[in-house]
Every structure is written in structure tokens, then in C-alpha cells.
Amino acid sequence: MTQGPLSAAPAPDAAVFPFGKQRNRATLRGGIPAVLLAIALPIAGVVRGYGVGAWIFTVLWFLALGAAGAWMIRVGWVDRHAYLAFDATGVWWLHDRKARVNGVIPWASLDAAGLIRCAQRPEPQGQARKTDPKQKGTESRPGPRLMSLELFPTGGVDADEPVLAPLIARDQDPSRPAHLPEQRYRIGVPVFATRHYGSAVVAAARSHAGDRWFGEHERPAGHLRVQDLIS
Asked: Where would you find the membrane-spanning parts of this chain (predicted)?
């Protein structure tokens, strides 16, 4: 594993998935209108001469909607450089968004690589999944689909490496292929990236992993957690 400033980046022909940039655009589309709506009511109050009661509502409106819009804009902005990429060297991601430091796990350091999927949360027992879009309620809806790359390094994981240590999968996976060790790195693909690039991410990982690829596997709901995602 190597790391460095952005000059140590994926190759020009890498398959790059800039989910941070795409997510930032999505949050701006929601955040900016919210801020504008928050400002609009106080302006209307000045123009029309609102009374005391109307101004109390206007202030609450401004604080609530303005804060929500500002929060959306900030969340998208701070992660705007986040990405996942694959090239002949390995798997790349933005490790440190403040210092803009990349992380990479080289293919040459791996015995095997694959992918697992699961729902974020299980459905309550005894309740069937609703398929009619007219039906309301969320009690039987599954959470978003989560996806992670499972990377099995030659010689085991390196718990002393500060970039790699957070990626060590701590859970046991008895369903993994029998010839693979228990220790592995896990790169959880963010939900936004899964929704927008899901099949393309899998295809890029599979093609670059080559003979190391052991396939795609389903796991029970809840096997992956939000904490496993890289952003």
C-alpha cells in the first residue's frame, strides 16, 4: 500500500467514479433552493410590513429552512473530492479529504478480490415486502442496498498501517470461499455511488482484478453497516 498527495493518483486511463462531485451537485440542487426560500419570507415581511406574530413565524421559518439548506450544502461540499477508482496498479480512494491524500491497495499485494451485497437493514419478521407503489408505510421496506469490495492481502492484513487499519473487516464471514483467509480489507462503496455507478463499479473492479476476482456474493441484510462505507 502506498499513499501520497494527489500527484500520486490513478492512471489517466483509470476507471474513476467521482461520487463526491455527483453527490455535491445533488445536495446543491436541494440546498440552494432551501436557502433561497428561507430568505424569501423575511424579504416579503419587510416589503409587506408583517405584524409581530407573522415575524415570529418568519424567524422560525428562516432558522429552520436556512439551517437545513446550509447543512445540505456543507455535507456535499466537504466530500466533493471523494472518489473510487481502478487501474492497473490497484484500487484507489480519497483517504484524507482535508489533506487530499489518496490511498491505494495494489492488486499485486492481493491473493483475491471480490464483492458482496446486502440490504442495509432486515425486514421485520412476518411482514412481506410491499410491491404496490400505492401502499404507504415504511415498516416493511428494506433499506438501501449496500455493496463492498472484499480484498484479501497476501500474508494477512497490516493493522499497523494507518491508512489500511480502518479498512480491516472485523466481522466473520463463514460464507466466503473456503480457500480464502478470514482477514481482509473492506472498501464499502457509498450508497450514492452504488445507486449511480453500481454495475459500472462492479465491471471495473472485475476487469482490473483479473484472475484474483472470486465473484459477487449476497449476504444477509445488516451484514454491512454504514460505518463500513468509505464516505
From this structure: 26-46, 52-73
Q: In sequence order, what are the residues at sequence separation of 6 or more whose Cβ sits closer than 8 angstroms to the Cβ of residue 129?
A: 123, 140, 141, 142
Domain count, the chain: 2
Indicate the residue type of 94: L
Q: Are 66 and 110 members of one domain?
A: no
Say how far apart CA 114 and CA 120 lie, in whole Å. Answer: 19
**Which parts of the chain have pLDDT scores under 70?**
1-7, 95-100, 121-144, 173-176, 231
- 15 is a domain residue: no
Q: Which domain holds residue 111?
A: 2-10+86-127+137-228
C-alpha cell at 201: 463499479
Asked if residues 202 and 216 have their Cβ atoms less than 8 Å apart, the reply is: yes
State pLDDT tens for residues 44-75. 888 888 888 888 888 898 899 889 989 988 88
User: What is the pLDDT at residue 95?
Assistant: 67
